[in-house]
Amino acid sequence: MEVTSWQGKEIKIMSRFLVGVLCCALRNPCPSQCGVFNEAIECCRALVEFYFYAQYESHDEETLGLMDKVVKRFHISKRVFRQFRVSKKVPDQGKKYRKRLIQQRDMAMQGKASTEHERLRKEWETFINTEMVEYHEEGSDFNFPKFHQLLHFGKQIRRYGSLKQWSTETGESSHCTQLKDPYIKSNWSGDIYRQIIEYYQRSDTFAIRRLNIAATRGKNAESGRDTIEDSLPVVKFTSEQPSSGQAKIVTFAKLLESVHDNHLKNTIHHKTNRFLQSRKIKIGSEDLLQCAVNIYHGIRIPISNMYGAQKIRYVRCTGEKTWYGQPARHNWVWVKASKHRHDQEPAYGALQGCLPYRLLNLFKLSAGRGHFWSAFVPTTTPAAGGTPERASGTVKVVTP
Q1: pTM for the full predicted model
Q2: Closest by Cα among 360, 167, 161, 157 to 268
Q3: Helical pair 114-138 and 89-108, crossing angle rounded to 10 deg
Q4: Tens digits of per-residue pLDDT, 311-349?
């Protein structure tokens, strides 16, 4: 499936996964392809890094230096894609040039013995292929304005400030709410401008009314929900965990029955028993099977960016069930898997003590007098001790 018209949101999402997907696609090169594959990964990585640096809300000389550095890396490594930048005229002219080379080959091979004929044929075949590659490279280029403009980003940021303040997203979104939506609600005839203004005034009045009602009820004035600390649980083991949406209540035995993998089923049973023992909850194996379990298919998690702004991410974990007709959905989560002291280096090298885990089951267990949120994940280990790969700059993790 190809995207014919990329939207801003689609580009943002794609940029998060581009390098990782490219590394997986080019993960098993033959010896002759290693250099080409690494150069392609490095080129895409440099372009994505520049894209992320350009989105910073504030800059200093260090970040601007990094921007200039990755732009130079991109322009050096982009030659690996040059063969795909051939102009439309080159293929037709290339056919004529190849035809002339073949005619020269036929003239040179006339009157030669059979043994020498075969040797000359191979030499000419190698020569023609080399000439055609060079011919196509000479007719290709990256000479268009958008790539050249990358060289001027750092200079413009030094003069006018970060690019975020020049974003047109705010104006475009306001244009929708202030003009497009009111126009759609109008009768498209008569005094349209008066209808648009009146609609916008009424919408603004109702919005202020909703905010006042939410404020009097002690709710969050912006979202109309409880505060983040009260409504957004974090995935961890605890005895005081608020609810996160609707949940199906079954017994622990029913939960195990829904797991088709016998090894995973035994692991969940064993690990849960060990966890309860670590919390000094004495319960037998048979009693554990009858404990009440709330099965959840998702959870809201607050995530803060580098500027302190907080966003809400909904992590899905559908167990064995399908997701809108597609295979079961098990999102990945970033987990602090190792603690370290200030006088020690973090574990796993560049991963800084964190590892990616994939949620297999998410539920709340009621055992004894406690309620415990549980998340079962297959463990992962970093390859090469957490050292990033040279071309992609990413760390490869594997399941043991």
Answers
A1: 0.68
A2: 360
A3: 160
A4: 888 899 888 788 888 888 999 988 888 877 777 777 888
